[in-house]
Amino acid sequence: MTIPNTLQDVQTDWHFAVPVFKSKLNNFPAHQAGLRTFLLELQQKSPGLKKSNLNGWHSENNLHLQDHPDIQWLNQAIGQFSGQCVAPFYPGQEAQTEILLTSCWGNISGGNAWNAPHNHLPCQWSGVFYVDVEKSLERDEESRKKNPKDRSGLIEFMNPLPLGRHYHRSSVVTYHPENGMILLFPGYLMHLVHPNLSPVERISIAFNLEASQARPRS
User: Is residue 162 part of a domain?
Assistant: First the structure.
């Protein structure tokens, strides 16, 4: 399967001297229903894993190996996106650098579900793709108008250095999820997902990547 022009422009944000890449997949609407249905059916078949997820479902880590057309489409889209993001970190070696999708899992978070602070070490790069999150955030938009500190359902990244406002350094930064949005960040970056205060479930897919240097032939 070849996916031409899959990405919108890739945005690179530097927080705490750490990059967070963001984009959206242009043809995601054609795959959203298939991904959503597949994950909901998988949830019924598997109890899932207990990791950072609290009150939510975390699938097995082999989602990328599933023989499903929408999953295979996403695998290639992740490869295209991550390759574009990571290439500048290997100047002059882009052709020899292979981006490997090493693990991938689905997350279904209903009311009061959240993800505790964690990182993805020893993986080099990690990311998340949002399948169906905007309905759960509709309620939150009204709440945030009344309470700007309401961060329900937002992903939050933490400054690796314990620097606060006294040093004019931000301690955290949050991103507002959108359907079809994809994020990529270093595996060591601590992050959390704030509790979903809506009864509507949130569905996302997380993944880990490794950048492998091809060995020269003897």
Answer: yes
Q: Is 201 helix (H, G, I), strand (E, B) or coil?
A: coil
Residue 130 lies in a domain: yes
Q: What is the pTM of this model?
A: 0.89
15 falls within a domain: no
Q: What is the extent of the structural domain holding 173?
A: 21-90+98-212
Of 83, 77, 99, 128, nearest in space to 212 by CA:
99
**pLDDT tens-digit profile of 166-180?**
777 788 999 999 999
Helix (H, G, I), strand (E, B) or coil at 36: helix
Residue 19, class by beta-carbon neighbours within 10 Å (0-12 exposed, 13-18 middle, 19+ buried)?
A: middle
Q: Which residues neighbour 129 within 8 Å (Cβ) at sequence distance 6 or greater? A: 25, 74, 78, 181, 182, 183, 204, 205, 206, 207
- The CATH number covering residue 105 comes to 2.60.120.620
Closest CA to 124 of 82, 71, 66: 82
Contact 195, 113 (CB under 8 A): yes
Q: How many domains does the chain have?
A: 1
Q: Is residue 74, in this structure, part of any structural domain at all? A: yes
pLDDT single digits (tens) 39-74: 999 999 999 999 999 999 999 999 999 999 999 999
Residue 27, pLDDT above cutoff 60: yes
